[in-house]
Amino acid sequence: MTALTLSTAGAATLRADALVVGVAKGAGSKPGPVLAPGAEAVDKAFDGKLAAVLATLGATGAEGELTKLPAASGLKAPVVVAVGLGPVPDKEDAYDAEALRRAAGTAARALTGSKKAGFALPAASVEDAAAVAEGALLGAYAFTAYQGGENKLAPKDAKSKDSGPKLPLAEVALLGAKPRDKAYKAAVERALALVEEINRARDLVNTPPNDLYPESFAAVATAAGKEHGIKVQVLDEKALVKGGYGGILGVGQGAERGPRLVKLAYTHPKAEKTLALVGKGITYDSGGISLKPAGHNETMKCDMAGAAAVFAAVVSAARLGLKVNVTGWLALAENMPSGNATRPGDVLRMYSGKTVEVLNTDAEGRLVLADALTRASEEKPDAIVDVATLTGAMVLALGNRTFGVMANDDAFRTSIHEIAEEVGEPSWPMPLPADLRKGMDSPTADIANMGERMGGGLVAGLFLKEFVGEGIAWAHLDIAGPAFHEGAPYGYTPKGGTGSAVRTLVRLAERTADGDLG
């Protein structure tokens, strides 16, 4: 994990591999790059001509743009990195927090392999400093656990030119903040704890399924619980059978490695509210008997991203000492085809007692979530939020960067949407049309796990709603789009697991602790 410090040094005197400054995109009579607050000392070293030099190099200040240039003689760092912030804000110093996160992330990614960089981006307010810290730490991420192994075919006395993958930026020195101010220190400590858990969620999503399966995921949760004072309970196959968890067992019965239901409980002695989080944890999804077509299996290790987000959020709440009780439920299974696998046409008796006719074994996430939602409801929390890479239909509706929000309470749905936008996670409120429920009527069971094809993401939400306890506010986040990024990295978003929804869940927990559940 990259180190983060609030530096007492100025930009001109900081000894580092590089200095990062912000550049905004001008408009009207001044369309060229405009230096953002924080760059003053660096500009002075360039005799006030840094913007002009950047313009000569083609910089415009557009979001995501990055320009490297040799530092002027008055600076201790040898390189200056100018990163675009997008349009100049209407009010001076009022840079959008998400623009700062993305700019810091872009710079951190560009400095992979460096030991230390000073970030002289706008940090006059606590909120700005927190955004820069989060973005830089999120951008300085790489999953290298399976890279850089010994080449046994190489001569033993030969020195390999490739010493392994480049490591992320080792240290971020935040400039322009107030190192001795308690609010700044708290903001940086929060950012560090939060991003460490987001990156742990990313690691879990990126881990290959031969190493991450229900039992090993449960072991990771158990170890984290011991470290952070979280009570962890793991239900194995025998306990699931005894408890009647037909949904989780039905999905996992085709795999050699059995399913698990993991409960993580963080409690605070002064908490007045309880928040339950439920995560879909399909550690590999082949589709089961309803096998996925060629080309759709390669990234299915990411189908446990919801459980990873819930796990990270509970640990974050514990590390931050939030005055709220947060319980996480990880519904873990492998969905595999075999002679023991659930077949289309089978009927499962769920933990709630309802029966479900399985029409498609690739609609398995809703089955494991249903059992976990019922179990979570038994404890009568003030609210439940489930998180899942649930439907391709949601990706078709909202694209790869936005998750859908459904709920049984309009005010709660609005609150979740506002929180997600506040922390920089694009989301969109989605309806639960009552007319789509009829499509899941079954002549054999209480309900089928499939309904109308059109609006499939909403149908899945309606299915889950059936398993939420009466009178409990509930929201469903379908993160199928943003949970796993297959394209080139951008901003602070890496290729692979992204840690989607963790920031939203943690901010929800913080608001709940403050008495504002929504």
Explain what this protein looks like in three dimensions:
The chain is 32% helix and 21% strand. The chain has 518 residues and is of the alpha/beta class. An 8-stranded mixed beta sheet has the order 8-9-11-10-14-18-15-16, sandwiched between helices. Strands 1, 2, 3, 4, 5, 6 and 7 form a 7-stranded mixed beta sheet that branches. A 3-stranded mixed beta sheet has the order 12-13-17. Helix 4 (126-139) packs parallel to helix 5, helix 5 packs antiparallel against helix 9 (305-320) and helix 6 packs parallel to helix 9 (305-320). The two termini are 34 Å apart. The model has no long low-confidence stretch (mean pLDDT 95).
Helix and strand topology:
Layout: E1 3-6, E2 18-27, E3 30-35, H1 40-45, H2 50-56, E4 66-70, E5 79-87, H3 97-110, E6 116-120, H4 126-139, E7 171-174, H5 182-206, H6 214-228, E8 231-235, H7 237-243, H8 246-252, E9 260-266, E10 274-285, H9 305-320, E11 325-335, E12 347-349, E13 355-357, H10 365-378, E14 383-388, H11 392-398, E15 403-407, H12 410-423, E16 427-429, E17 447-448, H13 456-465, E18 473-478, E19 484-485, E20 496-497, H14 502-513
Parallel strand pairs: 1-7, 2-5, 2-6, 6-7, 10-11, 10-14, 13-17, 14-18, 15-16
Antiparallel strand pairs: 2-3, 4-5, 8-9, 9-11, 12-13, 15-18, 19-20
Helix pairs in contact: 3-4, 4-5, 5-9, 6-9, 8-10, 9-14, 10-13, 12-14
Distance between the termini: 34 Å
How large is the radius of gyration? 24 Å
- Beta strand %: 15-25%
Give a count of the beta strands, DSSP E runs of length 2 or more. 20
Strand order of the largest sheet: 8-9-11-10-14-18-15-16
Q: What is the overall pLDDT average?
A: 95
